[in-house]
Every structure is written in structure tokens, then in C-alpha cells.
Amino acid sequence: MDLASLPSNKKRVPTVRHSRVREGTPHPLGATWDGRGVNFALFSANATRVELCLFDSEGRRELERIVLPEYTDEVWHGYLPDARPGTVYGYRVHGPYEPTAGHRFNPNKLVLDPYAKALVGKLHWSDALFGYRVDSPKEDLSFDRRDSARAMPKCRVIDPAFTWGKERPPNIPWERTIIYETHVRGYTMLHPLVPPAHRGTFAGMAQHEVVSYIKSLGVTSVELLPVHAFIDDRNLCEQGLRNYWGYNTIGFFAPDPRYMATPFVNEFKEMVARLHDAGLEVILDVVYNHTAEGNERGPTLSFKGIDNASYYRLMPDDPRYYINDSGTGNTFNLNHPRVLQLVLDSLRYWATEMRVDGFRFDLATILGRESHGFDPSSGFFDAVRQDPVLANTKLIAEPWDIGPGGYQVGNFPPGWAEWNDHYRDTVRAFWKGNEGQLPAMAARMSASGDLFHHRGRRPWVSVNFVTAHDGFTLDDLVSYNDKHNLANGEDNRDGHSHNLSWNHGVEGPTSDPAIKALRERQKRNFLATLMFSLGTPMILAGDEFGRSQDGNNNPYCQDNEINWVDWHGIDDDGKALAELVRELISIRQSYPVLHRNRFLTGEYDPELDVKDVTWLTPEATEMTPEQWEEAHGRCLGALFDGRARASGIKRAGEDATLLLVINAHHESVPFKLPEVVGGRTWLCLVDTAAPERNEPPNVQTGDCYEATDRSLLLFALKPERQSWRTLQSLAELMQRETQAQAKNAAGADDDPTAGASVP
Questions:
Q1: 132 pLDDT exceeds 80?
Q2: Which end of the chain is more exposed for a tag (fewer CB within 10 A), N or C?
């Protein structure tokens, strides 16, 4: 059906004014203010006409429609010399409505500019948002003539000017990176030191007290769940729920208005500047694998109405339907050069104009899909690798999707880090007490060289995590055997059932002191394991003080207290756990062997007469192949010899020798301290069974230290040439730094918890 033959909706056509329009240029795409006027450019290979629609400042009333006068290289463009920043606009795109051929043009539907830098207004669900009659027996083959403008958000032209001042990117080396995953809204909604008007916004995240607390933990990089403009699903809205996580993008350049206390996108830049001033990186969780428009029954909001056949991957034998490797209805078509350009332009925009430091890519396997399947040399990966801007950002893949061959952990190209779900599952299974976990545990704590040690990749590529936004929090991991997702409205069918969690005897909260004590010890075990494993650790915000989601392991739709961080409810156990996290991070950053830039192999180095790691039994003997295979083995030691090379430089003796002991037995195990060249006394830095110990005990080589049931130990060898006073000074310095960080946590000079229960 060619829309040129359809009668126009004259009642909706405005005739209020007539703006001057010139031909403009086909690049850059989007709406660009040049100081004198605004250039508008929109790609569509299959459109027959494009109308630029101008609205009042609130986006409520359509003032004028302007046909873009030029079409160059499949880009429709025009220049308005009288337009200024703040101009509110959208598009109506004409062309064939032929779903069976992949075309879904409908000029009755206002569509958003894919390059819009800001949005105004909210989406109000209505049947008019759909390009077809939702009540028609022909389904999406029908055609809907209702105007959708009143129900749509609109685009706003921005002035990109911003004074960054002395802001500088932190440029944290990968091997020293510690990621803190959080949500802009949920992190500050209940924060007592954030002004009410700023809670849940970028301005709230930029608050001094918030930044100071994050900095006090010792983490280096704040990873934000999606902040690109996104849509709340209709079925969720009808249930009084929202798409809280934000994995439903509709605009890849615009910050979502719900996270803004002001109408100005510079609010995001202010947040970045404040975090950078504190030495903290900003990493964005981005969703380029699909959009909020869904499948053939979804709404027409942007890409579908601009050029459906170009923007989406359609079924080759029936382009009426969408390839659904994302599980959300559609898949973005990065095989098309203009779609690939859009993604790269978006990434560069956030890296340059917004100055973020890296990206975590949701369902990143899709980005590497070619016609023959996943390819680490895909057009997208090659384009990113050669890009002088993007090649210097942190790139993190969620290395799976639901399509054929979608699980690709370890197969991403050099330069990429990857979420390591092998680490998550192995560490959970080990501390739960499952049998036969020792070989896998050793591999995961060694940065999973079996998965990543190829093509010159480094240990940091393994992003290690025990918990993330998707799944149980750390407190729920040790408090629930089963998921409790009834609040999501899906009869508890949603979310993973294989959580490898353990409630330790009671499902949910308990007053039993023995169970509570064991749960707290297990939380310490998980956090210490994470910090003392080679690779890049990622902490879920709130885990450092025991935040709970009441057993909900899929709260993607809960914009309420289930997801919001409860800063008022932090008890003494939570404060103590936060102090431990600061100590663990301080230890990790103080000992290069814990963040070395070479994979642990256990191989003998004849030049240095040493192994980089020796795996020990409780008798201080090296593990044999038979002992590795023992199903009941649950106690293991890892000796990191300080004489081993931690980098490619041939040097020795520049790092401490450490012994890490993990015991998942339900009984204590006496562990013999091994004899090592360079010293005879071991200093116990961490014992998760005795977290409040004042003086770290000394143990002589050959003596046994009781590894309490379900506990972790870390020892440092006291060098023979180093005086006890020197070691004691180092320990005291670390303690003072930890105390100073805690004091700054709430931004108070005298009491770190003044005015709020902030750990």
C-alpha cells in the first residue's frame, strides 16, 4: 500500500506558521545546532517523503510540518535558519505499508529521531501508537490512520556547550579496575543526604555525599544500568509496574528524562565531572541489540516507521516477521552500514561529548552476528577496534544471547572484557558446599585462563562477579533457597530457578543467631573470594552492607523499595561488612600479585626457580592429580610466590608472597603453613571467621592454623630482611586509610554516620 494514495489527515495538519527552510546537508545525522540555525538529517533508504514536525516547547501542540527538501545518499535533510536549541520536533515518514515486504511506513505515526540528543514528555500508551489496527482480524496487515502525536514523547534540539573545567578522565588501568554496578534511580531514591528534588536523578548521583561514599569503598569505576531513553512496556504499565532496569531503549543518544532533575542534558555531564573529580570512572550499560518497538505486533515509535527493513533483522523467507535473537521481539540490524554507523556514532557521542569511560554491552553476541553466525571479526568488532576513540574506552561484553550459538564466553576479540558467569556459578557452588568444585574453583580464581588465555588477552578480561542486577543480591543469596518473584505478576515463573543459593536453614529473614552468624560469614567469604581472585571484580551496589530484594531475583519491573537502596535500614552487621569491603579492596590494591597482569599457570619458571602459583593441600603439600579429582575435597590453598613475574618485565622480589586458604567444609580444617624461600613467619591479614580481630596473628612455617568451617584466610609472608616494625607500619597505614575512607563516606567531618545510617 503506497501512502501517497491515501487521504491525508487534514484535521491534524497545522497551518499556524511557515518557517524558512534551506537544503542543509546530509551530515551529521540528527538535529545539529551550528550557532546560527539547525540542520536536520534523517536516514531512510525506502521512504518516499519525510516531514519535519515542529511543536510547542512542551511538545503538546503541533505547530508546523515541513517537508525536508533534499535527499542525498539515502539521507533526507533540510536546514532551518530560524530554529534554535530548545526546538521540539518529530518526524512523519511516508512510504509503502507492506509488512510482507518488510515495510511499515505510516505518516499518521509521529516517530522519534534516532539521533535525538534529548526528549521531552512521556509516552502515553494508546492504540494510536500502533501502525496497524490492534482490533483488526488482519492483525498487523491492517493499517491504522489515527494520529499518534499526542501520545508520543518528542525530540528537543540541544546546545552541546558545556564548561568541563579541570575535569580529567581517571584512566584507571584495567588490572587495577574494580567495578561498582548500580542504578541511577534506585541508588539515591532513599538517600537521606540527597535533596528530595534530586533523588533518583543524575544530580542525585553527583551529590557530594554520594560520590564520597562510593570513593570511600575503594572501587574505581561506577557502572550505571541503562540511562539511554527507554520505554515502559504496555503490559507492565497496565499492572502498575515499570521497566525499572531500562533494557528497552528507544533513543541511543538521549538520556532518559526520568533521570533528570532539570530539562538540560548537561546534568549528566555534571555527574560525570563530579565522579571524575573523585577519580571514579563512569561505565554505561548499553542496549544496542534491540529496541522498544518489539515484533510485528509492537508499536511504531521510531525505527519501525522510519525504515523497518533497514533497521531490523527480518526473517529472510517472510520479512513480515522479526528475527528474535534478543528475546524481546526484535533484533537490531548491525549488518546494515547505516545502522552500524548509528551505533558507532552513539558510542562516540557518549565517549566524547559525555566523556564516559567505557561501556558494558547487553547481549553482546548479537553485535557480532553475521549471516553465518557469531564472528569475532564481525563488522562491528572490526569497526570498534580501529576506531581511535572507542579503542581507548573500556569495552565489556555480556557474551551471550538467545539465538543459535549465542553463548560465546571467551570468544570475543582482543580488547574486550567479558562477564564471566562460570566464575559466578563456580564460586556459588563451592561456598554452598557442592562436591567436586576444587579444579573449577582454582581455574576461576586464576582469571579463567581456560576460557580467556589466548590471542594475547590479559587476566582483566574476566569480569568476575558473584551477584549482579540480574539475580539475587548477596544477602538474598545466603538467605533464600528459592526465588520469590510473585510481585512481578507472573506467578513466580520469571527469573532463574538455578541460583546455587542456600538459606542456611531458614527461608528468608531469621532471628536465629547461629544462622545469622553463618550467613554473615558466607557474605564475607564471597566478597573476599571476589577481591582475591585474578581478573576484574564487579560488586553489586548495596552488597557491601547486605541489601536485600526480599528474595526477588528478577525485579526488572519494580520501581519501589524492592529495588531502591535502603540507606536507613543499615544495621551494625551492614556497617561492619562495609568496613570489611574497604579493607579487602585496600589489600587487593596493595599487593600486585592479586591484580597481576599475567595469567596464573602454575608452570615452573627455571630462570627464577619458582612457580607463579602452587596449589596446596591442608598438609602444605602440592595437590596431586588424584587429589584434584576427590569429590569431597573442599579445602584448598593457593601460594602466590612473590619472586614470580607479575608482568612481562623480568624482575623478581618486588612483591609479597601470599597464601590464600579457602575452606568450604562444614568442619574446621587445620592448615599447615608452608615453608617458603624468603621468610619463616606468616602474618594473617584476613580471617573471615574472625573479622573483628584487633591484632593480626603471626604463624611460623610448619605450624598449623585452624581454618574455621566455611571460612577464607589470607596470609602474607614476613620477609627475613624486613623488620617487624616496617610490616607493622604498613598494616597501620592500611588501617588508617580504611578509617579515613569510612569517615568520608557520608561527607561528614566528625562522624561518618552523622544524619544518616550510611556505612
A1: yes
A2: N
> Is the Cβ–Cβ distance between 419 and 396 less than 8 Å?
yes
**What H or E segment, with its residue span, contains residue 154?**
strand 154-156
Query: How far apart are alpha carbons 24 and 47 in whole angstroms?
Result: 19
Report if pTM > 0.85.
Answer: yes
| Secondary structure tally for the chain: helices H, strands E | 16, 33
Q: 362, 475, 476, 520: which is the annotated catalytic residue?
A: 362
Size of the chain, expressed as the number of residues it contains: 759
Hey, what's the cell of 287?
542496549
Which of these, 199, 180, 181, lies nearest to 190 by C-alpha position? 199
Q: Which position among 181, 223, 307, 398 bears the catalytic label?
A: 398
CB 389 within 8 A of CB 352: yes
467: Cβ contacts below 8 Å, ≥ 6 apart: 424, 473, 474, 477, 540, 543
Residues 544/545/550/555 CA torsion (nearest 10 deg): -40
- What is the torsion angle, in degrees rounded to the nearest 10, for the CA atoms of residue 523, residue 528, residue 534 and residue 536? 60
Pairing mode of beta strands 75-80, 70-72: antiparallel
Q: What is the tens place of the pLDDT at every residue in 41-64?
A: 999 999 999 999 999 999 999 999
362 assigned to active site: yes
Report in angstroms the alpha-carbon separations of 328 from 158, 214, 296, 412. Answer: 31, 33, 12, 23
Contacts of 726 (CB under 8 A, 6+ apart): none
